[in-house]
Amino acid sequence: MQGTLPPARMEFYRHQPYNLLLVEVGADGIIIRAALDNFSDSQKSSFIRELAAEGFIPDQYQWLCNTSANGCADVKWIIDRSWLGATPALMRKKSTPWVLGMFGTAALLFLALMSYAVLHAH
Q1: Contact 41, 71 (CB under 8 A)
Q2: Hey, where are the domains in the chain?
Q3: Which of 36, 48, 63, 115 has the most neighbouring CB atoms within 10 Å?
Q4: What is the DSSP string of 95-116?
Q5: At residue 78, what are phi and psi to the nearest 5 degrees?
Q6: Residue 115, SS3?
Q7: Cβ atoms of residues 78 and 33 within 8 Å
Q8: Is residue 76 within a helix (H) or strand (E), and if so which, with residue range?
Q9: pLDDT band at 6 (very low <50, low <70, confident <90, very high)
Q10: d(CA 75, CA 71)
Q11: Peptide bond into 7 cis (omega under 30)
Q12: H or E segment and range at residue 19
């Protein structure tokens, strides 16, 4: 039985620490492009193990990558925001709650002002 290969590019959003990540799987290793430089070595190793455990990258990385100074030779971390322009769906997903909250607050304020105007129109 032949296993399925993971997709070549995957995007991730991390909450703690906040970061947007693009993981590219290639024949010569893995490239992780991060929008911010806020991952410690132990967080990087943990993220790589999590990716391997979930099947996003080959299983071998779950055991090859450790928290030592050399990390994982086949995984390259790059701080690069240029790929974010190519993900309007991700930006829309992040901005939708903010925009809906602004419209909701404006609607409540409008209703409160109109109620006050109607009640005190005498």
Answers
A1: yes
A2: 1-86, 88-122
A3: 48
A4: HHHHHHHHHHHHHHHHHHHHHH
A5: -130, 135
A6: helix
A7: yes
A8: strand 75-79
A9: low
A10: 8
A11: no
A12: strand 19-26
